[in-house]
């Protein structure tokens, strides 16, 4: 699972526009209850948005006045798959307003320390 699109933090807030894509080969599973979570450094939830089901790709768009430290894409179904790589994004450069991509293979590796349910 990966995100393709724009993720921007500005003085006015945060915007996310793009698609979430399931990059598996051949027949890919459909993931239900896919949600985007925006978190502060201390783990407080800034905002969340359900994007529903993800088969190959689905669009997502959201904005908030707060700038999240972490942008996490999650679904309970992700972790029922034997070998999955899920991307999340971490805010790393305040002057450039950049997010860097990180990949995890288990829900426990997602930031912050939260259940994402």
Which tags fit this structure?
Immunoglobulin-like, 117 residues, five-stranded antiparallel β-sheet, 8 strands, three-stranded antiparallel β-sheet, mainly beta, globular
Characterise the protein shown here.
The protein has a single domain, classed as Immunoglobulin-like. The chain has 117 residues and is mainly beta. The strands form two sheets. The protein has a five-stranded antiparallel sheet, with no helix packed on it. Strands 1-2-5 form a three-stranded antiparallel sheet, with no helix packed on it. The model has no long low-confidence stretch (mean pLDDT 85). A hairpin with a 5-residue loop joins strand 3 and strand 4. It is built from no helices and eight strands.
* Number of beta strands: 8
**Secondary-structure element series:** EEEEEEEE
Instruction: Kindly state the percentage of residues in helix.
Output: under 10%
C-alpha geometry: globular
Counting structural domains, the number is 1
- The SS-based structural class is mainly beta
At the first level of CATH, the class is Mainly Beta
Biggest β-sheet: strands ordered side by side in the sheet? 4-3-6-7-8
Largest sheet, described in full? 5 strands, antiparallel
**Low-confidence segments:** none
Could you tell me the strand content as a percent range? over 45%
| Average residue pLDDT | 85
């Amino acid at each position: 699972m990966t995100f393709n699109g724009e993720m921007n933090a500005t003085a006015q807030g945060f915007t996310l526009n793009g698609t979430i894509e399931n990059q598996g080969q051949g027949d890919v599973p459909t993931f239900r209850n896919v949600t985007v979570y925006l978190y502060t450094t201390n783990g407080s939830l800034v905002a969340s948005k359900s994007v529903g089901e993800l088969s190959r790709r689905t669009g997502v768009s959201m904005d908030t006045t707060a700038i999240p430290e972490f942008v996490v894409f999650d679904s309970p179904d992700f972790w029922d798959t034997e070998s999955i790589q899920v991307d999340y994004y971490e805010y790393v450069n305040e002057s450039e307003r950049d997010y860097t991509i990180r990949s995890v293979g288990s829900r426990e590796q997602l930031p912050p320390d939260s259940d994402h349910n």
